[in-house]
Amino acid sequence: MIETSEELYERCSKTKQASKRLGYLDTKTKNKALENIAQDLIEKKDAIISANKIDLEKATSSGMSPAMLDRLVLNEERLRAMSQDTLAVASLPDPVGEFFDVRTLPNGLIAGKKRVPLGVIAAIYESRPNVTIDVISLCLKSGNSTILRGGSEAINSNLALATLAREAISQAGIDEDNIQFIENTDRALVNKLLKMSDIIDLVIPRGGAGLIRFVKENATMPVITGGIGVCHTYVDKLADIDKAVAIAYNAKVQRPTVCNALDTLIVHKDIANDYLPAIARKWAEAGVEMRCDPTALEILKPIKGIKVIPTMPDDWGKEFLALVAAIKVVFSLDEAITHIERYGSGHSEAIVTEDYAAAKRFLNEVDAACVYVNASTRFTDGGQLGLGAEIGISTQKMHARGPMGLRELTSYKWIILGSGQIRP
Q1: 159 lies in which domain range?
Q2: Chain segment 102-117, per-residue pLDDT in tens
């Protein structure tokens, strides 16, 4: 185990050195490594689940919330899903080496861009051990080496997965130092890691607001931030009620502990009397607590068997990560957009409407990484949007936004082909 900053630097230097060859490795070899990882996730499931059980027992005894415990769980179903996601990444086109924006200039020079890996990507993350495999798979396919530092609550699970992946890529002929797992959870070493701009080209934090803020404030290399999802669904006055009920139910209930789940439901007053009782009864089946503004509360309070309470000021702009939703009734699309602008996190926002003009305005004016018309925000996911998997969801505007897949983990260099041209 790494104990000192010198040992940390030495380990990470090996990853930097290994990355130079990985950057131009052929697609067939990278895909073979991914197939090995996918296969081992199934064949070695018992060992992984046993390691995860240790983490779960410690987390439960420490009083971890149900939402966080859910993120920590690895079972056979989730391992199979991770295996399939890894194979999906293997099946995707390799972005490395792609030529684009090629053109012939008036002087005969042929100039264009060639897609290249970023180099070494560090991922600092909490709770969710599946992130270990997501990061490894995407980095490997995009030609990037990776340095992983997970949280102490998932140390046994992450170590088992990282060890599996190192062995799997080695069997495919790839240097295992392209995957470096920092098993020491001392936060001081994270600070040292964030100062290694000569080794690490990009760092991606995944976790709570505190972790993301810490990384952003201390890193000396570029940081991709995001993952905090305060997601709204606006039900317009011309929405189809059945469609709106199904969308809001899915966005809140399908998996409430993730960043793309619905947090605030905004409803136009003209449809509120018909729509709110319908969604409230549906949500009640799943045990959703509804925190209502005065208008919504007046409509819903007479209904028996539902959980309704008045909103508190901090319910707006809050990522609940639980079966809790805030409800606001508005008088116009303008008011809905203004509310989202004030309280949204730039993650995922949706409108449900049959009005083309309203949908177009919402798409144009709402500033978020993913903006939906008549669909659940739960689709903000690399796998769901055809990326195979994702390394994170960026709420920034440079250099990537939304789910970060293979192309988002590359840069480019200019390629200029001449036949003896000199500049006059």
Answers
A1: 5-224+404-417
A2: 999 999 999 999 999 9
